[in-house]
Amino acid sequence: QVQLVESGGGLVQPGGSLRLSCTASGRFFVTYSMGWSRQAPGKQRELVAGISDGGATHYEDSVKGRFTISRDNAKNTLYLQMNSLKPEDTAVYSCNVEYSLNSDLTRRLRSWGQGTQVTVSS
Questions:
Q1: Which of 28, 58, 61, 106 could be stapled to 99 by a disulfide with Cβ–Cβ 3.0 to 4.6 Å?
Q2: What is the pLDDT along the chain (122 residues), one digit of tens a residue?
Q3: Is-contact 60 82, C-beta < 8 A?
Q4: 3-class DSSP state of 14
Q5: How many CB atoms lie within 10 A of CB 19?
Q6: C-alpha–C-alpha distance, residues 92 and 60, integer Å
C-alpha cells in the first residue's frame, strides 16, 4: 500500500535547526491529512504537527512558533522545519499519512514511517 520514509534527522546544538522530510511511495489514490509525531525515551508518543489536504495546520503547544509543517503534493512529500531546537525536542520523529486506495473515498487508511532520530544536545 503506502510506505513512508523519513530523512533529515541528526544531531544539532540547542538553538539550531533541522528540516525533516517524509516521502510516500506505493499505491494510493489520494491522500488526506499528514502529520508528524515524536516519542522520547520513557515518554508517550505525541502528535507534533498535522496538516490537512487543504493545508490547514495544527501544532502541539510546545512547538508553536518554532516548527512549521508543510507538504508538496506533487512530490508526495511532507516536511517539518524545526527551528530554535531545545533538548526536550530530542525524540524519534515519525510521519504518517491518511489515504484512500481507490475512488471509494469513504474508506481510509493510515500508515506510519519508521522514524528518524533527532538529538538536540551541546
A1: 28
A2: 899 999 999 999 999 999 999 999 998 988 999 999 999 999 999 999 999 999 999 999 999 999 999 999 999 999 999 999 999 999 999 999 999 999 999 999 999 999 999 999 99
A3: no
A4: coil
A5: 14
A6: 16
Residue 54 near residue 115 (C-beta atoms within 8 A): no
Is the distance from CB of 122 to CB of 11 less than 8 angstroms? no
Find cell 481507490 and name the residue: 102
Residue where the block lists cell 516548527: 67
> Can you tell me whether residue 88 is helix, strand or coil?
helix
Residues in the chain: 122
φ/ψ of 91, rounded to 5, equals 180, 170
Cα–Cα distance for residue pair 91/111, rounded to 1 Å: 19
Quote the CA–CA distance of 48 and 38 in Å, as a whole number.
7
* Contact in structure between 109 and 100 (CB atoms under 8 Å): yes
